[in-house]
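From the methods appendix. Each design record in this collection lists the tokenized structure first, followed by the designed amino acid sequence. Records were kept in a plain field format so they could be parsed without special tools. The example shown here is representative of the layout used throughout.

RECORD:
FOLD TOKENS (142 positions):
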């Protein structure tokens, strides 16, 4: 039986340097890079990183802006990131991410307690930015 539950498939992030962004998400955030070699060879329009089995982040270079014409006015969305994307992690992965960010001199916010989210109150959460200014929240519920 196929599960037809609505899910998040991907988020497109505007980045200045897709290869550098892929490196950040792989080494600092701990995500699996996808299509990096193909992008570097000019065979893919952008690389991606895998968040989980069902969701990826596409790392769209700003030079794709002129081709963002699937909707009237869509090209104007470049450089206008969403407020933030929230990553829900197990407690150990949450702590490991914060350590990698701090070791990489990536500024992080203080830790909040009991922030509301998709699964109720998260035990702890904090915020950080990627090198292109996209804001992420990391949290864990357990």
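DESIGN:
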């Amino acid at each position: 039986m196929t599960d037809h539950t609505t899910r998040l498939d991907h988020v497109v992030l505007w980045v200045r340097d897709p290869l550098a962004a892929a490196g950040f998400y792989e080494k600092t955030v701990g995500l699996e890079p996808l299509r990096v070699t193909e992008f570097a060879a000019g065979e893919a329009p952008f690389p991606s990183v895998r968040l989980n089995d069902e969701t990826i982040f596409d790392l769209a270079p700003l030079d794709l802006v002129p081709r963002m014409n699937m909707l009237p006015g869509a090209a104007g969305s470049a450089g206008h990131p969403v407020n933030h994307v929230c990553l829900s992690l197990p407690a150990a992965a949450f702590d490991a991410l914060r350590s990698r960010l701090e070791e990489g001199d990536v500024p992080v916010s203080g830790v909040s307690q009991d922030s509301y989210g998709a699964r109720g109150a998260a035990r702890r959460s904090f915020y950080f930015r990627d090198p292109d200014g996209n804001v992420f929240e990391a949290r864990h519920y357990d």
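APPENDIX NOTE: The longest strand covers residues 120-129.
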